Amino acid sequence: MTQLFTRSGTEYTGEVKTSLKGKPTYTYKVSCNRCCEIDGKRMWIMGIHNDRPYSLTGFDCWTCHNTGFTSIKTAPLYTAEQLAKLDAAAAKRAAAKAAERAAIQAQHQAAKDAFIGLHKPFFDALDGLGGEFWTRLRNDMANRMKEPTERQIALVEGEIAKRQQNATSAHIGSIGARIEIEGTIERVISMETQFGIKHINIIRCNGNVVVYRGNYLGSKGDAIRMMATVAEHGEREDVKQTIVQRPKII
Fold first, then answer.
1. CB atoms < 10 A from the CB of 7, how many?
2. How far is 206 from 199, CA to CA, in rounded Å?
3. Exposed/middle/buried for residue 224 (C-beta within 10 Å: 0-12, 13-18, 19+)
4. Per-residue pLDDT reduced to its tens digit, 119-173
5. Which of 163, 171, 195, 243 is least surrounded by CB atoms within 10 angstroms?
């Protein structure tokens, strides 16, 4: 008797039927994925509570009516030679599709490389910045081959200038000393606390970073001159910061 196989390559040993075209076939049941079998009984449940199945809408499965299958389907059977031919044809199609995908990817990569080369200074600057945000921006613009806008160029140039300035930031004054600070408010971060709104004022003074946490001292870009007490010499993200207290505008 000729060996017959399902399309997946499993040898079939059950009842063989014949299609209208005289081809060998078999039938199989499509299992229900909505209910399950518990203690030999098919039922639909919502979960297990205290080691017992429970349901708020009854245990009858509306999909298979507790039979365990939703339909009966017919599928062809193949000899070993037929299956080998089918597998070879499928492998050939898969190889052709893989080659087509590779060609498309190579074409896209060539176009992306040309685009990056056209905007080399901008992408070199992004590569130099690193970090999650800048890497994500770089990859998004490269993959979409999106022209950098004037605002994006200014953003990158501003970040580079800021990092260069931060690299030269140094601690000023002695801890506990009352010093005069004259500079520009670079950023103000406001946050809600249990004691009310707290402001983190970041001031650039002769290239050095000064931080005051407390009252609002002004808006970004405002010039400021004040007396303050040096509370701490700190460092954040490799940038030296002078933390001050009790500022008095002069």
1. 13
2. 22
3. buried
4. 999 999 999 998 899 999 999 999 999 899 999 999 999 999 988 888 889 999 9
5. 195
